[in-house]
Amino acid sequence: MTSDTRAGWRPVTESVGSVRAMKALFLRDLKAAFRQRQDLLNPLLFFIMVVTLFPLGVSPEVSFLQQAGSGILWVAALLSVLLSLDHLFRHDYDDGTLEQLVLQPQPLFLLVLAKVAAHWVLTGLPLVLLAPILGIMVHLDGNSIGVLCLTLLIGTPVLSLIGAIGAALTLGLRSAGVLLSLLIIPLYIPVLIFGTGTVAAAGEGAPVSGYVALMSAFLVLAVTLAPFASAAALRISLSNA
């Protein structure tokens, strides 16, 4: 095999190695999460409790809940994701695994993407699956519930990706949870606005394709840029540790 041929095969083998590393890290995070079920269940229980208690604390009227239901569910989902972000890199940081990930030959942003994907499967996806039941509780109609699930399916990965940046920046700091909230919540506002706006438009019978396209653009932008920003933030946090 000539040197040119070997050079041509090198990017292929490196990409295969990166895919295997991402898969291994993804599966490892899933297994680790199921060993610590309390961290896994806390965001889901919080999501259910907020949506359940809101009508009791504000108003149980059907007309009010139909109007505010999408906002209640979206705010509860946002806070549930925010609640789980502190554990995204924390355990790996505490046991030294994160330093080993930084030293791996695979690009760090791909490993971060694998961890964020595992976080979404454990946190965001269950919220999407619970949304229809809680949507019925707040008296949303069938079309609005379907659009709500679609917006959560698109929007919750964006929440995880953006949240990973804040989790990486506040890694190892005291009062990291408070700082994480201050950093991330302003960045969540556009997703929240378009998520609730899409469901409201569906409830009024208006077309939602424009809203869905904008939320899809948010997702593409987050997948493209957030892993690089999170990887850079991790290197900064580890260098300052």
* Total helical segments: 9
Query: Helix/strand/pairing class, anyone?
Result: mainly alpha
Succession of helices and strands: HHHHHHHHH
Number of strands: 0
Amino-to-carboxy terminus distance: 46 Å
The largest sheet, given as strand count, sense and whether it forms a barrel, is: none
Mean pLDDT: 86
Which residues sit in consecutive blocks of at least 5 with pLDDT less than 50? 1-14
Q: Which value, in Å, is the CA radius of gyration?
A: 20 Å
Number of domains: 1
What is the strand content?
A: under 5%
User: Percent range for helical residues?
Assistant: over 70%
Question: Which geometry do the CA atoms define?
Answer: globular
Family: Belongs to the CcmB/CycW/HelB family.
Subcellular location: Cell inner membrane
Function: Required for the export of heme to the periplasm for the biogenesis of c-type cytochromes.
Pfam family, one: CcmB
Report on this structure:
The chain is an all-alpha fold. It has one domain. The protein has nine helices and no strands. It has helices at 3-35, 37-57, 62-84, 87-94, 97-102, 108-137, 142-169, 176-203, 209-240. α6 packs antiparallel against α7 (142-169). The longest helix has 33 residues, at 3-35. The protein starts with a helix and ends with a helix. Mean pLDDT is 86; it is low at 1-14. It is a multi-pass membrane protein. Keywords: Cell inner membrane, Cell membrane, Cytochrome c-type biogenesis, Membrane, Transmembrane, Transmembrane helix, Transport. InterPro entries: Cyt_c_biogenesis_CcmB (IPR003544), Cyt_c_CcmB_bac (IPR026031).
